[in-house]
Amino acid sequence: MVNCNNNYSGYKRKRALKQHSRLRKNHMILRLISVAAVIGLLWYCINGLNLKEVSPEPILSIGTDSPDISSADIKKDDTDDPLWSLILVNRWNVIPEDYHVDLTKLSNGQTVDTRIYPALQNMFDAARADGVNLVVVSGYRTAEKQQSLMDEKVAAYKAEGYSAYQAKTEAETWVAIPGTSEHQLGIAVDINADGVQSKGSEVYKWLKQNGYRFGFILRYPPDKTEITGVSNEPWHYRYVGIKAATEMNDQNLCLEEYLRDKN
Ligand SMILES: [Zn+2]
Q: What are the φ and ψ backbone dihedral angles of 175, each rounded to 5 degrees?
């Protein structure tokens, strides 16, 4: 009897313990679920913000007076001093050592020369009005950044089995040699689709048809690679001012040809 009782109370205790541990388990699972929900919510918030951050709308920041975005400003900007916007940089013309650039930061962290910011903003607004969503995926680059892009490209070709010389030669048709990249000027931008509302092909088409109206040219057209020394890059737009861009567009000239004809 005693044994029986002992067994019975032992059984009850076991059951209670089992129940207790089950409750603890459930409690733990609930806590894990709520922690996951909080993390999920945070992730969503941060991502939501990021999506906004990479929206093509440039937002002002560093150290410059806020440019007033109006067409009047762009016209003034365009005619006052055209020399800075017609600087030629390519594999045969390196950036002057004393080149200085004042930068304006865009909402996604990219930076551009402050002087092209109003025109860029205007172009993005016009594209958006046409239902095309643009993103600046690469603006100003330091020489160091350009060098690391080159190193990456060379390494990628080597990994494909190219010799050191071949890899370098091949890489240089895609990545500008440091000191010869327009990105180091801050007046060139790589523009792509936002990947949500627009596709790359739509963006390139829109830019090709409209870029010049805002002073931007398709810098490396497919039919000018011999002259520019760079392969077709439908995303790379360079600011030259509205007047020059319009003339180049009308006469189908790349920057090298335009400057040669002018001189
Ligand atoms: Zn580019």
A: -120, 130
